[in-house]
Amino acid sequence: MWLYLKGYLKGGPKIDTPLEAAFADPGMEHPNTYAMLETLEAMTDTKIAQLRGPTWDEALEINAYFLPFHKARWCTYLFKIQPFEAYTTESQVTSYIGLRADEPERTGYLGDKGTNITPAYILRQMGMTRTDIEDAAQRASLPPPGLWSCACCPFKTHFLQLLMIEQQPKAAEWMAQIEETKRTRGAGDHTWIRGYTMRELIDNAQTRAAIKARWWSKNHSIDQIALWDDLEAEETPCLMCRVK
């Protein structure tokens, strides 16, 4: 969306007012997200403002170690909405939100809480679907996007949680320690991911293998399942193209 707005990719809307880019960073994003930001800055010769709310440790203290989940996404408010509202101050602002035409049920920040922020869905107005955006990103030689946003995101599937443990072990260990601290603080047994503790997933290879096998059987044919058990680790088939 930013490449279309800046004219780097042709066919986007012509915007007469000044454009700024801002990224609200919770501090636990996928490494590819940060690589994408650096690439976009270089391609468009634009500085992307880095917006920060509290740290995760501070946010957990604020919320008495109640972990965010699907119906209580306090993380979005503290890490995304509050910093963005503070950044825009009292200005009349149009917020361009990169939702696609094939996800019409979703909405971004609505600006409906007494702010001067008006949302606009440029990609949706252009009729761009996921396939269109992937093609545009390939033409622009953008680095691949992260498989998830924040490491702490409660919307990750069990399979993505395993990938996060493998790719971001320090973040996974921190999350396990938070769950353990949460119990000592009397904040209940609610964990980052439904049905498991992070420690179970980190320490128990059999549990991880069972989750992968379930995912494999759900997303592939019965004939392929036997291959999963027989292959050596270095011969394990690539699953990335099916994750989303």
CATH topology of the largest domain: Rossmann fold
| Helix vs. strand class | mainly alpha
DSSP, total strands: 4
Percent strand? 5-15%
Number of structural units classed as domains: 2
Gross morphology:
globular
Helix-strand topology string: HEHEHHEEHHHHHHH
Rounded Rg: 20 Å
CATH superfamily of the largest domain: HUPs
Q: For this entry, what is the oligomeric state of its chains?
A: single chain
Per DSSP, the total helix count is: 11
Q: What is the name of the CATH architecture of the largest domain? A: 3-Layer(aba) Sandwich
Helix content: 40-55%
Strand order of the largest sheet: 1-2
Structure description:
- By secondary structure, the protein is mostly helical.
- It has two domains: 2-139, HUPs (Rossmann fold), CATH 3.40.50; 158-242, no CATH class.
- The protein is 45% helix and 7% strand.
- The protein has eleven helices and four strands; from the N terminus they run αβαβααββααααααα.
- It has helices spanning 2-5, 31-44, 56-62, 74-88, 122-125, 130-139, 158-167, 169-184, 198-203, 205-219, 222-230, and strands spanning 21-24, 48-51, 93-96, 117-120.
- The strands form two sheets. The chain has a two-stranded parallel ribbon with strand order 1-2. The protein has a two-stranded parallel sheet with strand order 3-4.
- α2 links the parallel β1 (21-24) and β2.
- α7 crosses α8.
- It is globular.
- Mean pLDDT is 84; it is low at 227-244.
